[in-house]
UniProtKB/TrEMBL annotation:
UniProt key word Iron-sulfur: yes
All copies of domain 2Fe-2S ferredoxin-type, residue ranges: 7-83
PROSITE patterns according to UniProt: 2FE2S_FER_1 (PS00197), 2FE2S_FER_2 (PS51085)
Pathway the protein acts in: Alkaloid degradation; nicotine degradation
Name assigned to this protein: Xanthine dehydrogenase YagT iron-sulfur-binding subunit
Record keyword Thylakoid present: no
Pfam family, one: Fer2
GO MF term set: 2 iron, 2 sulfur cluster binding; metal ion binding; oxidoreductase activity, acting on the aldehyde or oxo group of donors
Keywords, sorted A to Z: 2Fe-2S, Iron, Iron-sulfur, Metal-binding, Oxidoreductase
Species the sequence originates in: Asanoa ishikariensis
SUPFAM superfamilies tied to this protein: 2Fe-2S ferredoxin-like (SSF54292), CO dehydrogenase ISP C-domain like (SSF47741)
Length: 172
């Protein structure tokens, strides 16, 4: 019975196709960490409540602890390890450093991936829960950033630096 639950899954992670043999009930988070050894993505609550496991799937943010790995087959998965361009950090990575957007750093990979996805949502004109006008271009003020990032928790309380870093990148 157990052999029927295992199989090869081809995951495109950080621009590279990777074949993993895993139980078809494995989450994307476990496939990334345990099978591909990409440990930047963190397991926090394992219930989709903290955002530490956030990755980008086809450019959209996703809690990898809630997504089955087989559901990511044929899609582009980007983890924190795939954000930098060789030795050149992603602008958000540089801004997080400049604004002290982390303390212990455990949530930082998820915060970064979520921020990138959030900025793409804003660029696409997607409203948030606090958007006053659902048809207008979102105004990305600090309250809007906080609302859009509310699914990513930081136990150290580095929120001021996180918001400042995102604001810097959003403002160009």
């Amino acid at each position: 019975m157990t052999d029927q639950l295992r199989g090869d899954v081809v995951l495109r992670v950080n621009g590279e196709d990777r074949v993993v043999n895993l139980d078809n009930r494995s989450t994307l988070l476990d496939a990334l960490r345990e099978h591909l050894r990409l440990t930047g993505t963190k397991k926090g609550c394992d219930h989709g409540q903290c955002g530490a496991c956030t990755v980008l799937v086809d450019g959209e943010r996703a809690n990898s602890c809630l997504l089955l790995a087989v559901a990511a087959e044929g899609r582009e998965v980007t983890t924190v390890e795939g954000l930098a361009d060789e030795d050149e950090l992603h602008p958000l990575q540089r801004a997080f450093i400049a604004h002290d957007g982390f303390q212990c750093g455990y949530c930082t990979p998820g915060q970064l991936c979520s921020a990138i996805g959030m900025l793409a949502e804003v660029a696409d004109g997607m409203p948030s829960w606090i958007s006053a006008d659902l048809t207008a271009t979102p105004d990305l003020d600090d309250d809007e950033i906080r609302e859009r990032m509310s699914g990513n928790l930081c136990r150290c309380g580095a929120y001021a630096g996180i918001v400042a870093a995102i604001r810097e990148v959003a403002d160009g």
